[in-house]
Structure formats: C-alpha cells, structure tokens
Design a protein that fits this description.
Length: 79
Amino acid sequence: MSRSMWIISGLILILMISSFYFGRNREAPPWVKCKESLFAQVVMKQCTPSSFANPNNMENMETNEKNIEDGLPFEPPQN
C-alpha cells in the first residue's frame, strides 16, 4: 500500500474509534421520540411516542407478544 492509503486508513480508523467513544450513552434526539416525520411534528404538532423514546417499553411489548402467541390455537397442516 502506498503512503496515502496508510494515511487514509489511519484517518478512517481514528474516525471510527472517536465516533464509537462519543456515541456511547447519548440520549436520542427529540425528533426520534415520535413516530411521525419531522415535517408532521413541526407543521401539524403531532407526536405519537415511539419505542426509541423508552427502550424498556420494547422489552414489555416483546413479552406481551409472546403471551398472545401462547394463547393462539395450533392447527397442524393437513395433507
């Protein structure tokens, strides 16, 4: 590899490490907390909370879905 390729590879590596380091433990931006688009939030003042706003709700939804699936009747395939 040429010298310029080593420099570019080094810069990419530094960028990846710094983005990982500074991206940890960050709160989601306010526009991610709604299911609607940013346009609908600004113009129409709509906001339905999404699962990104509270990740713990996502775990609760998965357990609820499992409970619902357990109650469904099972019908074996007919040949």
